Amino acid sequence: MILNAHLDVVPGVAEQFTARLDGHRLYGRGAHDMKAAAVVMATVFREVAPTLPYPVALQLVTDEEVGGFDGTGHQVARGVRAGFVIIGEQSGLRIVTESKGIVRARLTATGRTAHAAYPWLGSNALLTVTAAVQRLLARHPVPAAEQWATTVNVARVETSNTAANVVPADASALVDIRFPPSDEDLAGRTAAEIAAHLTAVTGVEVTVEALGAPHHADPDSAEVRLLRQAARQVGYDGTLLRKHGAADGRFYSAVGVDAVIFGPGGDGQHGPEEYVDLRTLPAYRKALETFLEELGGCG
Has this prediction a pTM greater than 0.70? Predict the structure, then answer.
């Protein structure tokens, strides 16, 4: 059994790194994603693990927000395994058995420089790459509301050109693609296959800089049933949930190990008003303890 949490956070303004308490909400960068859960998991591990008849590990990593490849990914590649893994990402004490895969890709275009007054003498690489982005977005438009579908975020468009009176001869766009297991163009494909597919869609050279498979755990497994029961015993409904964001559970899923996301409540992760709901922490701790103890009884 592994309890997994990540300690890194995304960037934020200086004020977000000073915790602020407002009623039952604790605001701050990483409060919800996922330092509060990490503290609870560490506490449960310290107090409960020595009493259990099976081995339990606490896995704390520091690179989940940039892909997790050197933390959980590296450890799984080196042979770390478990019968079941709980990722402490935020879930409001619901159990996430499925989450999307991730592709981080760079679209690159080259052109020909020229004086801006005579653009017909050159070839504007920025126009080429932005047209490529539009073709990708036409295939995967931004949903108006939550939808279990492939989405594309255009994170950055850039060029080395700095002069207004020069036609840029190089440009690139960085995109973040999240995809469900049902996307046959991306799920189960290698980085090279995905790059070829995206090149065909966009018409420009594409390099896949990071690739993470979708995550899936058996919703009918004994462990998931026990975790749902534990959530119900502390007043939550223990419903199953699908998440749009990728998490480190995908590394375990890829090697046949069931991993679920199960964490406390709150809102605003990665945003300016991120907070954890402190009322959910005692219930979260009790649910983890109950689950581990019941799992030991089943053994």
Answer: yes
Task: State the architecture of 2-99+214-298 in CATH terms.
Answer: 3-Layer(aba) Sandwich (3.40)
Quote the tokens at residue 80.
């770390």
Q: Tokens representing 242?
A: 């699908």
CA distances (Å), 188 to each of 116, 151, 162, in order?
Answer: 45, 17, 40
- Per the listing, tokens 């996430």 go with 96
101-212: CATH number: 3.30.70.360
* CA 241/CA 132 separation, integer angstroms: 34
Contacting residues for 251 by C-beta, under 8 A, at least 6 apart: 68, 72, 73, 76, 212
2 near 85, Cβ under 8 Å?
Answer: yes
Tens-place pLDDT, residues 209-218: 999 888 889 9
Locate the domains of the chain by residue range.
Answer: 2-99+214-298, 101-212
Q: Give the distance, in angstroms, between the CA of residue 223 and the centroid of all CA atoms in the same chain.
A: 23
Element (H, E) at 10: none
Q: Cβ of 55: how many Cβ atoms within 10 Å?
A: 10
Check: CB of residue 60 under 8 Å from CB of residue 80: no
How many other CB atoms are found less than 10 A from the CB of residue 7?
15
CB 215 within 8 A of CB 247: yes
